[in-house]
Protein 1
Amino acid sequence: MIIVMLGAPGAGKGTQAGMICEKYGIPHISTGDIFRSNIKNGTELGRKAKAFMDKGQLVPDELTVQLLLDRVAADDCANGYVLDGFPRTIPQAQVLTDALLKNGQKVDKAVNVDVPDENIIRRMSGRRSCPKCGASYHVEFIPPKQEGICDHCGSALVQREDDKPETVKNRLRVYHEQTQPLIEYYEKAGVLATVDGTKNMNDVFADIVKILG
Ligand code: AMP
């Protein structure tokens, strides 16, 4: 089963992708996570990607597309996978469609996690994470026991550069201009399913499971 997650940044598609992967035993492939781990490890790719990510822009296709195609060609993807954050543009979707077609495959479902912009801004600007152990928090929805401090390891929590308000606005603009057209693309392909992403995490997941079967 090949699943594409669609939705604005901060719509919760990463969380849902993780839950789908756990239930169906398939890998979770997040291009954003791949870039972030490259940044953490100080690679050349990470250095190049960071310049775009920090501004809320898309990383250029030269750095993104082949990386993704190589990843989905790995052995652990043989029974399917969930793509989270790819494709982000119509050209990326077309590359994916063509690459899959060569293997007689296709995207089985594109799950669109629908959340209005106002909710997105509130969700993203409150996100905090621990730079040491990676734990995630939200100042409003999942606050740490002590403000600004990680419950698990006691480190000072940080806000991702790309979760800062100006960058969030830019990411939403980029989403509407470049990524939202994918909803129609996958609708035309007959594989689109939209879920209400404003519900709580478990209810959204239950709706997704109904769709995936
Ligand atoms: P995400 O964690 O999916 O929100 O991605 C974080 C950032 O990584 C995005 O704002 C982009 O700068 C970059 N990125 C992730 N996936 C892609 C992609 N498919 N194409 C271009 N840039 C991407």
Protein 2
Amino acid sequence: MKKSLLMIHTGNGKGKTTAALGLAFRAVGHGFKVSVIQFIKGGRRSGEIETAARLSDLIDFNVTGRGFTWQSDDLEKDAALARKAWETAKEKIRSGRYRLVILDEMTYLFKYGMLDEDEVIEFLADRPESVHIVITGRSASEKLCAAADLVTEMNAVKHPFASGISAQKGIEY
Ligand code: ATP
Ligand code: MG
């Protein structure tokens, strides 16, 4: 039986975004088109943006937002960008053009009240039958997890940041 899945990668350990990108790597191999929407822009230009640019006929990569919310000087601007990004995501999902849509770091938008979680859950429940969704981000709510078909919690057993080792190119970004 074929079924489109709603998948959540959450938890405090490393691997949420990269596991989602791993799924993109897998899906592309089957000829599926993939769309990635990164709701929070990292401080550095990530390797995945460059890779996606080389595969632009297969992977549609969108970076939105202005960086991490706890560094923000204008939360209203962030919220407006988040809503706009969600409108873009909805269009991509509705179009049915993409077999896999990755909503990266989306949970933070719920946490900071920038997006209505109920609206998102409702929309996703009504998405086209062919579209798999991955949502990543820490602290996925019980409600979101209940709506999903698959939830993986990354658990931080050890992370180099704790030993004062800074973010490494090609690993962290
Ligand atoms: P990745 O993109 O490497 O898969 P992630 O998506 O699970 O990581 P995020 O919560 O999006 O992690 O955080 C982004 C950055 O924070 C990454 O550079 C990641 O390495 C780092 N990070 C993740 N987990 C931890 C942790 N437990 N302690 C410190 N830094 C972390
Ligand atoms: Mg991430």
Protein 3
Amino acid sequence: MNDASSSAPKAALTVDVRENGVAVITYDVPGATMNTLRKDFVEEFGAVFDGIAKNDAVRAAVLISGKKDSFIAGADIDMLSEIHGVETAETMCHEGHAAIAKLAKSTKPIVAAIHGAALGGGFEVALACQGRILSHSRKTMLGLPEVKLGLLPGLSGLQRLAMLTSVQVALDFGLTGKNMRPKKALKLGVADDVVPRPILEKVAIAYALSLANGKKREKKSRIDRDELMQFALEKNPVGRSVLFKKARETLDKKTGGHYPSPYRIVDVLETYAQSGFEKSQAVEARAFAELLDSDVSSNLMGLFFATTAMKKDTGVDDETIEPRTIDKVGVLGAGLMGAGITSVSIDKGIEVRLKDRDAASVGRGIKYVCGILDTKVKRRHMTKPERAEVLGRLSTTVDYSGMKKVELVIEAVFEDLDLKRTVLKDVEGSCAPGVIFASNTSSIPISKIAEASDKPENVVGMHYFSPVHKMPLLEVIRTEHTAPEVVATAVQIGKRQGKTVIVVRDGVGFYTSRILGPYMNEASYMLSEGIKVDDLDRAMTKFGWPVGPMTLADEVGLDVAAHIGPIMVAEFGERMTPPPTVGSLVEDGRKGRKNEKGFYLYGKAAKKRGKGKHVDETVYAALKLATPDYKTSPIPIEEIQERCNLQFINEALHCWGEGLLRSPRDGDIGAIFGLGFPPYLGGPFRHVDVLGASHVLGRIEYYQERFGARWAPAPALADMAKAGTRFYD
Ligand code: NAI
């Protein structure tokens, strides 16, 4: 036995040379639950693999992880965020290339034995090995997710994946950052074998030895017809240039040009295909360094750090507060939201008792839940026995039977204050004493509902977003009476349901609905100034919003917006006043997508007009406006974007100034995960930091002069501009 790391007690790599001449190299970062590539990986990998090359007793090697469920989960992102300056990052990247080359060029075969996540740098290390054996496990996944942080793979993983498979496959995995499961890896020829975990090391050792004995690595890639076409495309220069041109065009459509990293990924692979591996490494190092130095990457990393920190946040400032243990949840209302909440709960191991008024409504709820699970089975994210197990956690009722032991009830009945108060009283009378009552209301202040309660300390808001199984945010709302322990319990349940949770203080519209108000109103004002519905939407999607304000209004429901509008005006005054025309939409029977009558055409009328979305041209008359007829928009696109965004940001700053939020971080996460604020900007608060508070204030004052009171700047913004402060360091 030979321990190459004995002189460095804190080394992550240890080497054990077996009698058969195979060195088993174990990567196990001390003190961490998960393996990542640390700053010193270049020296450590360099030293160990130099040692392997020189050691005559070693014929082959296996690289394996010492952690339970991670091979190497990627580069240490803290370390990346501390690198400053393009030159430093470029040098670091070149050093990484040199260290990885020791594996890639090793004359002694090195086989990666992978169980758990091999992501980013971890996958790149594995790709540089001469073979890869994977465990047959749900935990095992490969991938190059750097694009999600605004970066690109910096250890030539793109090119090595292209070598093993095709440029097309490397583009696909590099640009989406999606995971590659063992079965797919085997099909693509990335994995040499997939075996049960207990024999992973043994099989990898045997495979390494066989390679050392001269066995050639089989190319297992079994490609289908479409992929064959792609290969044909890649094989000649004209085909290749078509491939890259198409990739860039798709990116223009998908990202609006706001995210530089996917374009740089295309550059790297194009250089690799046209000019070879070495030249592509130079392009890669420069691109990596420039991306790491960019605002977009720092914003996206900020989001990563925020969501990581939020996983550990209990939602209350007092660290001694413990959440209650909840095994069973009651859900009232099996409609769109209730069924959605049920599905994410049972899926994550929480038992649910679902209640609605009658069997038919319960039936609709069950159908909805089954639909979600069926899709998971179809997409192979769940097996049929797992589906049965998940459904086994659901029971239903049309009265309060079976609710005696329920410790938390989430209500999602109709949006009606009296009804919410009635069910609250029913719950307090029927469930366990001390039961927590959580309301999923989208607009009623929680304290108003809690007025009906004998124990307002147990009443809290849990505001989910539709569709619940897809939307990542949960907004927990605390009233002045809600007990911290109840807040912490709601947060913990939300996290168990897979949500990112922010906690906000109670008030009309909470945080998310409130900041959307002035944004939507501003779009409506521009509509009454003569801008076309689709031009408004296009302007905002071009800026990076997932949908435009008019589409969003149709989705949320024009009746819902019309209902909330006056409540907002009553609470916040003039700055929430919509243009006078908006009310006429509901009078015209337009509720949006739900009744297929809104700003856009739906159903048969839409189909008649062919592919894509079509504005319902009769909407202008319903708004008592002339149908716009212009070639050049009377309001420039930049102004449309700025006016909507500034209203959104200004309201977020009002919320901050009023103490609604616990931190700017929560405000940024709520805006991005709940409403779709463009992630590349890092959230409204980060965006103010980048633009500068005085610049933002100046622009708002400019519009205030043009349009009056609805543009009054938030006091917190004026204070920050005066003091020259920022939200983030
Ligand atoms: P929905 O109309 O689809 O479902 C409401 C359900 O409640 C119906 O199945 C109805 O039969 C049931 N119900 C009525 N009275 C009941 C009672 N006494 N006991 C048990 N069930 C009863 O409505 P949706 O869209 O699911 O909304 C529910 C709540 O969630 C509302 O407060 C809404 O404001 C809120 N919300 C809705 C969002 C959305 O996008 N739809 C987003 C966030 C919150």
Protein 4
Amino acid sequence: MIVGVLGAGQLARMIALAGIPLGLDFIFLDPSADACANKLGEPLIGDYNDPALLAQLAERADVVTYEFENVPAEVAEFLASHTQVHPSPKALAVAQDRLVEKSFFFGLGIPTPDYAAVDSFESLEQAMITLGYPAILKSCTQGYDGKGQSLLKSPDDLKPAWELLQGVPAVVEAFVPFNREVSIIAVRSVSGEVVFYPLSENLHRGGILRVSECRTNDPMQQQAESYISRLLEALDYVGVLALELFEVDGQLVANEFAPRVHNSGHWTIEGAETSQFENHLRAILDLPLGSTAPVGNAAMVNFIGGLPKTEELLAIPHAHLHLYDKSPRKGRKVAHATIRAESQEQLSELVKKLTVLADQVDDS
Ligand code: AMP
């Protein structure tokens, strides 16, 4: 079986690392010749909408999936008319535009922060009268890891934030005074089998995920499962789906969803019976899904901008290093470590040690 992947970054790399033991072969389409998954399969190097490369991918891959959601919609549509594509182009289209995504959430009864569409400076000023400060202005498309976002603390922030957007359509949303950020990862197979991972509790800084911890028996698990189930059904979804949520006083509010494997699920590689990457492949190939049961207490720490010293990291008990084979660059995710511990207390202690190493190299 040949799996085609749009994108050859670290997510594609981890999908391949999970698929090789299942006897799968991979073809990656990515503009970059040195993309970090390329060594694990056959690289097709060029633009996502290169007709010759797309034709090759469509012809040779038994199923196509993607590692990031900004694949042009027409590319996913073209591939879907020639081969199997999971998740569906519709899931991609909804996730690509924050405004479409928010109204999709609304239609399913999933709460979101209060928001307004913004297409001019005047409409931004108008929206702020109702929303109040603080608020966040976000571009509707192409935003990830806090990119294309500005925090609005007072009317003085409006002009610079609007100018930064350079006229692209945007959404302004109320700042949520959350108690914590969590995400849920669900998997649905072609046959409709569904499994959920335990919630991840996520720590972001500067809009970038730093630490995720698995929360077994979390009181918010049921509410999160109910929300993500609505998305799975409405999108007739196949594959791994991640939903990022804010918890505000016992209520979950949706931030965004990702139609792909997700950074907040990296702890599942060693911390769950079946990783999100393996389950994504099982789902799109219509194989039975694997157990999502956690193995001990697990967490993940990202390394951003720089690499830890391998010897130092591996000296931390129960730490597992995942290097992405990417050259360090400011703000770039280059590795993560998973940690597995016997108790929550031990986990917190080990996460602290990993965080010290991560902070030493972090330049973001
Ligand atoms: P996003 O790119 O939308 O996932 O945002 C990145 C991070 O910015 C989130 O994980 C939060 O930490 C923060 N953030 C985004 N939107 C809001 C909001 N409406 N209220 C509070 N924090 C937010």
